[in-house]
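Tutorial handout. Part one gives the primary structure; part two gives the three-dimensional structure as tokens.
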Amino acid sequence: MTQVLSNFIKALRACDVRVSTAESIDAAAALELVGFERRTLIKEALGQVLAKTPDDKARFNDCFERFFTFEAMGSDAEGASGDDAGQANPAPGEEAGQGGSGGGGAGGLAAMLERGDGPALQQALASAARNVQLQNIRLFTQRGMYIRRILEDMGIEPLDDLLYALLKANDDDARALKLKEQKARLIENVAELVDRQMLMYTANAWPKLREEVLEKTPLARIEMRDFKVMQELVRKLAKRLVSLHSRRRHVAKRGRLDVRHTIRKNIEYDGLLFDTVWKRVRIDRPKVIAVCDVSGSVAQVARFLLLFLYSVAEVLPKVRAFAFSSHLGEVTSLFEQKPVEEAVVEAVNTYGMGSTDYGGALAELERLTLADIDQRTTVIILGDARSNYGDAGERSLRRIHERARRVLWLNPEPAAFWNSGDSEMQKLGAACDKVESCRTLKHLERVVSEIARTAV
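Part two.
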């Protein structure tokens, strides 16, 4: 039985598909009969041997697709969709690691990146993942270690040496700058593969470990099968925030002892302090305007931001929410009329799936909200700032910033991708108080906690 088939059976068991030793042997025998050329035939053969019930069949199909495919790699990978998927692991009969390093030796990785050879990069990544035994990942603390090992196996060190030499000779060398951007995308692809493998191999782990993994996994990579777990996790984090900041508000409402007024009020008691007077503290609750880009992969992060904000309504009672892709609309009433989970889905379905227009969306936001924005208002914008080479809308954002207490921009992309292609992060970030890469539930918790502190 091949190593790839052995790893696939591990993944099936992690996804709650019971596979006995005898069934593993049968699977190897089935592969010998059908061969390794036709992917569909391999899937059908393994499914007949390893999936025994309708539930097992559904889990098997999902696990097979996730185990053997991932999004296309290459210099144009940022626009890839699921239709361009390639093999992350070769067919079960193909053994890897026979040619040494997945990067193909010094200069191999750089050459593949520069010519945008997606299939070769996919094969190198799959080979490196097997060479470092990525299937053994179990803890989130191992994530960085496996990312580094895979990159080293692919040949990242010769690439770094080449980049250093090019930049040392000329800081503005066009080849070096392009290669640097391609390296950043490669690292992101490696991290994505590691995250997916970790989610797959910990699918049946005990709850606390699974929650720890999901808290730190980029939200755009969370799969539908984990949404219920994520919603429960959001509720737990929101409850923790509400409890923390409610206690702070209770203390703040009482204030400090007003010594002068206390002594004056107790003169009739010969100076005995029967009645105390406390200085009153005005509680300045923040107003929040949340603006979410719900196009493409950003939509998934927007779901959790809206879910999080409305789950901490006790701390942030004044939240207005807007969603946009090709046009912007207010969705605040949805959350007042429906359960938060249903409202989030309807908001994404109503305003998502269009071509992103930041200029039009920010102009409409200015028209709808400028009169209500004051020094208690925090404006949160979630988006990748990719304007499809149209108007970025920075003038409207500057006028909003002039009236608001602060404007926060949360970008679900890694910072290395900002200002590349059609990204207008530099222009839009200049009109904000703070710009952050916000990719995980932990990032969202930190942002909401920071806003909630202004309620004290």
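Part three, for discussion. The domain at 229-455 is CATH 3.40.50.410 (Rossmann fold). The mean pLDDT is 78.
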